[in-house]
Design a protein that fits this description.
76% helix, two-stranded antiparallel sheet
């Protein structure tokens, strides 16, 4: 490993820890500060922290790898994500910010569910917290797998040491600085990712001679590489587009909407966030295609490279961004580009750790074990929870069993199905009640797990259609049917809903 590369990475890691220390002194005095930054994020930080926590290691490893292997047949996934993110900003973000504040200043998603439906049984809080802990622990493990893979492939480090190093730095700044530190590091990491996903494909296309030579070489590999419809099936396209449905139920993303300082800031946040996302996704797609062309043209010269097989083929498609960043750039710049991958990984892990710790703290510890716990005690419990969840996630990722994109896809579907329909209907449907909410959450989560893990005729149903589709469909049906069959919401709940509608009318986009 070149000295310049190491220097760049060390400086990046020191900067992340420094932001964590800043966050500690700036905003961890009470629980709202530690878990939600005091609801005072600006639109720029909101947009980039939401984007960076969304686009984890799969953006720089999983998606380029998918395009390297399958080309434009994967473009439907990108289209689905862009549409889903835009709808999330328009449909979910403003109302969720308003409603969570009006519903007793709810600072976690389970907190919001309980206050929104006046659930005195506490079942909504309990079940939603369990869903968060289960799926986020799995989701966090996918990020750690990406971190371990990065250090193993880029630095020749033992996978397990890379795993521990990734977790150690993220845990340090998350545990110390809380939500503000996580959001600020996400902002910086989002900027780094954006620059990297512009630099790498632009440099690759320039070196290969432009669009013409790249498309010519890619076309030689397979007719599917440049044709989004080649070999595509109806259910295959629907499955890829359905990734966009997941946005409405991702706690680590929508919690940013809860923390923005004003509903009026969402217009600016949306414009920043969508511009960032579209450019980043296009960059990731072009990186995969340029990588396929580069290996096709220069594969023989790459024999002996640690990322390549003896026959000149790439050993792991998900390392194509790493390969291009190290071959095409000076080591100092290459280190910056590797830091972009680390930034993508860490930004998501930190957000997931914080949301999971808030569920353990606010929705388990305070609600069921120590109702009179002070903010100081809860912040301390939150920090312990961050550490504990990281340890479990390290254990789950110790032996990687799936691709990064596959691991992310499972957790993404779990949250999208369990929380997506519940969030949207809770914001727009006055007649929804707690039993419908509970039914939708349970049905959505169980449908996804069934689709992934239960074999039918020798294979799981997820091989035919992405588990998000049936999960969201059945959860929505469960919410509507059960809400209709059980009692109407009481007057206090309907008054709160009407008040929220009134406030939204005062704040048109």
């Amino acid at each position: 490993m070149e000295t310049g590369t190491i220097v760049s990475l060390v400086l990046y890691l020191i900067a992340m820890l420094g932001i964590g220390v800043y966050g500690y002194f700036k905003s961890t005095s009470d629980l709202s500060d530690y878990m939600l930054g005091g609801r005072r994020l600006g639109p720029g930080v909101t947009a980039l922290s939401a984007g960076a926590s969304d686009m984890s290691g799969w953006m720089l490893m999983g998606l380029p790898g998918a395009f390297y292997v399958a080309g434009f047949s994967e473009v439907w996934l990108a289209i689905g994500l862009v549409i889903g993110a835009y709808i999330n900003y328009r449909v979910v973000a403003p109302r969720l910010r308003m409603y969570t504040y009006m519903a007793k200043d709810s600072i976690t998603i389970p907190d919001y569910f309980e206050n929104r439906f006046a659930d005195t049984s506490r079942l909504l809080r309990l079940v939603s917290a369990v869903v968060i802990i289960i799926f986020f622990t799995l989701y966090t493990s996918s990020g750690l797998v990406a971190g371990g893979t990065l250090f193993e492939n880029a630095f020749g480090m033992n996978y397990h040491w890379g795993l521990v190093l990734t977790a150690g730095v993220v845990v340090a700044y998350t545990l110390i600085g809380g939500f503000l530190a996580v959001s600020m590091t996400d902002f910086v990491q989002g900027c780094i990712m954006f620059i990297a996903l512009v630099m790498v494909p632009v440099a690759a296309f320039m070196i290969l001679g432009g669009t013409g030579p790249v498309t010519t070489e890619v076309a030689k590999l397979s007719p599917a590489m440049l044709n989004p419809f080649y070999g595509a099936t109806f259910f295959g396209i629907i499955s890829l587009l359905a990734w966009g449905l997941g946005y409405f139920g991702q706690p680590h993303i929508i919690v940013r909407f809860m923390a923005i300082r004003s509903v009026r800031d969402f217009k600016v946040a949306r414009r920043i966030g969508m511009t960032w996302m579209i450019v980043a996704i296009i960059g990731a797609m072009l990186t995969g295609l340029a990588g396929a062309a580069y290996v096709q043209m220069e594969g023989a010269s790459l024999v002996g490279n640690p990322y390549m097989n003896a026959d000149g083929s790439i050993a792991n498609a998900e390392t194509i961004f790493i390969i291009l960043s190290q071959i095409l750039f000076h080591p100092l710049v290459g280190g910056f580009l590797l830091a972009a991958i680390l930034a993508a990984i860490m930004s998501t892990i930190s957000s997931q750790l914080l949301v999971t710790s808030s569920a353990l703290t606010q929705d388990f510890y305070k609600s069921f074990l120590h109702k009179d716990a002070t903010d100081k005690v809860q912040v301390a419990v939150g920090r312990i929870s961050v550490f504990a969840v990281a340890i479990v996630a390290i254990g789950l990722s110790w032996v990687p069993r799936d691709t990064i994109l596959g691991l992310v896809g499972n957790a993404w579907a779990g949250f999208g199905a369990a929380f997506g329909p519940l969030i949207i209907l809770s914001l727009y449907w006055k007649k929804m009640n707690r039993w419908g909410a509970l039914a939708g959450m349970i049905v959505g989560a169980l449908t996804v797990l069934f689709w992934i893990y239960v074999p039918i005729g020798g294979e799981t149903l997820s091989t035919h259609i992405y588990e998000m589709v049936p999960g969201v469909l059945f959860a929505t049906i469960a919410i509507v049917v059960v809400s209709r069959l059980t009692e109407d919401p009481n007057d206090a709940i309907q008054t709160l809903f009407n008040d929220m509608e009134g406030e939204m009318a005062k704040n048109p986009d």
